[in-house]
């Protein structure tokens, strides 16, 4: 359960820090709602990073916390860690890319890690009831 809780805490912290960063960017740009029409703007990158995190973190957290209450194989704990690290890689990719219009290696690695670890945890959760 410790691995699950630590991963969930790390991902939750990511969402709160990103939300704060969006607020800072809004203050800097004086764009209170919506986004700018510029794929290179810090505000757009922050909004997209926060949005992407909030799309994936809740379901990952549910899976992790459920699996944390079960008797699981060691690889499931590693899948949790991969998922949490992948979320951070994705955010770093969003915030450091030159433009949102082009792929970035960290966003791609983060997405692949999220998908792979998420699917693996789904399989592990299914195995607990099968």
Description:
Helix 1 (2-29) runs antiparallel to helix 2 (42-68), helix 2 runs parallel beside helix 4 and helix 3 (74-96) runs antiparallel to helix 4. 79% of the residues lie in helices and 0% in strands. It has a single domain (2-129), classed as Four Helix Bundle (Hemerythrin (Met), subunit A). It is elongated, with a radius of gyration of 16 Å. The two termini are 21 Å apart. The chain is mostly helical and 130 residues long.
Q: Could you tell me the mean pLDDT? A: 96
Please state the structural category. Answer: mainly alpha
Please summarize the sheet with the most strands: none
Query: What is Rg?
Result: 16 Å
In percent terms, what proportion of residues is strand? under 5%
User: In which range does the helix fraction lie?
Assistant: over 70%
Element-level helix/strand string: HHHH
Overall spatial form: elongated
Distance between the termini: 21 Å
CATH class call: Mainly Alpha
Low-confidence stretches: none
Q: How many H/I helical runs?
A: 4
């Amino acid at each position: 359960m410790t691995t699950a809780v630590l991963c969930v805490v790390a991902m939750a912290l990511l969402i709160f820090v990103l939300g704060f960063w969006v607020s800072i960017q809004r203050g800097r740009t004086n764009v209170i709602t919506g986004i700018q029409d510029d794929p290179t703007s810090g505000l757009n990158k922050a909004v997209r990073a926060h949005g992407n995190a909030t799309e994936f973190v809740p379901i990952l957290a549910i899976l992790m916390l459920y699996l944390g209450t079960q008797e699981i194989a060691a690889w499931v704990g590693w899948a949790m860690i991969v998922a949490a690290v992948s979320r951070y890689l994705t955010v770093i990719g969003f915030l450091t890319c030159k433009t949102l219009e082009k792929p970035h290696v960290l966003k791609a690695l983060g997405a692949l890690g999220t998908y792979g670890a998420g699917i693996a945890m789904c399989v592990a959760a299914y195995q607990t009831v099968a």
